[in-house]
């Protein structure tokens, strides 16, 4: 068992009192507000079940349970405040995709609609009426599977126990390799990591970082012989970070987990909670069916800067920029901003020719690291030569509760009080024909016409905007995928009856 002890350094951390905040945020209720039609059982309880109770329940990771009426009422004002933060640090549920810009179709999106936010506000300010219990939804059944956001894993691998003393300094190092026990090769559709520890949640701070000892783990899997020696190149997996949501791979790009492989890591960051804590990580893999073969391979793209960052003290709205040029057609599967304490927001932009589009902007909270997986028919499809551009927005002032001392200049580094600026999102590489086929399928699946606009696919609608009648001679020089992409099918012609079709040479 790995044990981290104190070396004369103490841990400083930020924590706020939820109970105090709840008292301050609780609204005054007037007699006029008592007549609201919004009630707990009819309107509020379904919202809590969908977006809150996975964490806010007995045995959950949240600091309070929000299951029953009596549990929820003391926090009504705080719930209104935290949900009203929408896409900024501290918002609940912890999902920060901005709804006014970029693609709006994400997998596992727990965010609240404007109507849900209005209902919470009306209920909190209208006397928190309980309503008729007959209107209540069926209670959720919280079994062990409920702790896995992506679904019950097919394989769970457990690390050895790690003990971190309450006032120990931060520690970086490696952990012993852990055999997966897998006896046959399998392709993975998602991976999720959770920490299990013996911490008394009522005895520690209210931030997620204050309730975990493993800040992050960079890891891979590696086939090993009976002596623990590697026999093949390692396979990299998404980094584990505090409060990270599951990583869901593209349906056509499952990640290979080989038989006889072990989990290895030489970059584990441990962080004290303030009290002696023992815990371990559980790594949950969900598999594709046997016989599955991936269509695509991951695209390796470096997008970010972790070397020469300079963040001035006592200054808000500082910008960081990084660029990458795609050397092949690429599908973007996820957008995952990685910043440190001063980080407040990141945007992803794509430029191709005269087309410049913001694909996504998300807020950032260093206590809740989120990856944003685009839905299948909304994943950006970008041609070779596209310039990817990320913009990070940094707030190093005392208005940012994650910054311990805003007077200090900050540079690059691994600690939370130093900085990184990276998009850790997943992408897959495509051949030219695969790119043509993906665009043709996208156009037809979404029933797009020439006057529509699809963010993140600058060439999807080109055949509709400037249609070309292909000759047999043209087709002889083209692949089937390109012909399909350029061909306007009868059902597509129905939504563009007045479009002129030019010959292949532009007659």
UniProtKB/TrEMBL annotation:
* Domain called Cytochrome c: residue spans: 30-128
Q: Which residues form a coiled coil?
A: none
Instruction: Supply the PROSITE patterns for this chain.
Output: CYTC
Keywords, ordered alphabetically: Heme, Iron, Metal-binding, Signal
Cross-referenced InterPro entries: Cyt_c-like_dom, Cyt_c-like_dom_sf
From the Swiss-Prot or TrEMBL record, what is one GO molecular function term?
electron transfer activity
Q: Output this protein's name.
A: Cytochrome c domain-containing protein
Q: Source taxonomy lineage?
A: Bacteria, Pseudomonadati, Pseudomonadota, Gammaproteobacteria, Pseudomonadales
